[in-house]
Amino acid sequence: METKDLDSFLHNPQLYHTLRIVGKKLNEKEITKLAEVLESNSTLTTLHLSWNGMEEDGAKRLAEALQFNSTLTTLYLGGNGIEEEGAKRLAEALQNPIQL
After folding, report:
1. How far apart are CA 52 and CA 23, in angstroms?
2. Cα–Cα–Cα angle for 3, 89, 73, rounded to 5 degrees
3. Please, which residues have CB within 8 angstroms of residue 16's CB and are 6 or more apart in sequence?
4. Is-contact 76 47, C-beta < 8 A?
5. Which residues of 37-68 are buried (b: 16+ CB within 10 A; e: fewer)?
6. Tens of pLDDT along 12-36?
């Protein structure tokens, strides 16, 4: 199942396989909440967060969470302000997830 509503996902994350939040300009608090849920989520396979104004700190927080997520297979982050260090951390997290 897919949702475009962040609050729906945060309240029932196990219901969804796809989260598509595009052009909503997520704030730091929303990114942090999303990251917290992603750390333990076992159903989401596609995360589409393009054009949300996410910058370096948001990318780093997302990378920290994705280290613990083994189900995500597709990640869209185009149009954000993610620079080299944030992109590097995301790539490392996705290539080398921590197995619990």
Report:
1. 5
2. 40
3. 1, 2, 3, 8, 9, 43, 44
4. yes
5. bbeebeebeebbbebbebebebbbbbbebbbb
6. 999 999 999 999 999 999 999 999 9
Q: Length of the chain, please?
A: 100
Q: For the segment 21-77, what is each residue's pLDDT rounded down to a tens digit?
A: 999 999 999 999 999 999 999 999 999 999 999 999 999 999 999 999 889 989 999
Query: E strands of 6-99, at which residues?
Result: 18-20, 46-48, 74-76
Residue 46: HSE in the Cβ half-sphere, 13 Å Cα cutoff: 12
Rg for the chain, CA atoms, rounded: 12
For the cut 80, the answer to whether the pLDDT of residue 7 exceeds it is: yes
Q: Identify the H or E element spanning 3.
A: strand 2-3
Is the overall model pTM greater than 0.85, yes or no? yes
Measure the CA–CA gap between 3 and 22, rounded to whole angstroms.
Answer: 11
